[in-house]
Amino acid sequence: MRSSYALLLLTLLVICHTNHAAIFDPEDLSCSCKKVTSNFIHPSKYASVRITLPGIYCRRTEIIITLKSRKVVCVNPEAKWVKTRLTIMYVQI
Fold it and tell me: Which fold has domain 32-93?
């Protein structure tokens, strides 16, 4: 009888662990940009721009540009052209 309870408990622990691991994937709890570029990208190529502010999972600001070609590029937020472009975008809003 004890072995069946132990087996049941072990089964429940495995099920709970796999559900927990699927919900809280450690891969999603980190910075999105592994590599950044400072190379200029012309605004006519942008499909979208996403700015992620520092938080508990990533300590740096990330600027992610999706190009019309569907390529995703992370740019250096400290690059002069990026700062200038962001200023222009904020003024246009």
Answer: OB fold (Dihydrolipoamide Acetyltransferase, E2P) (2.40.50)
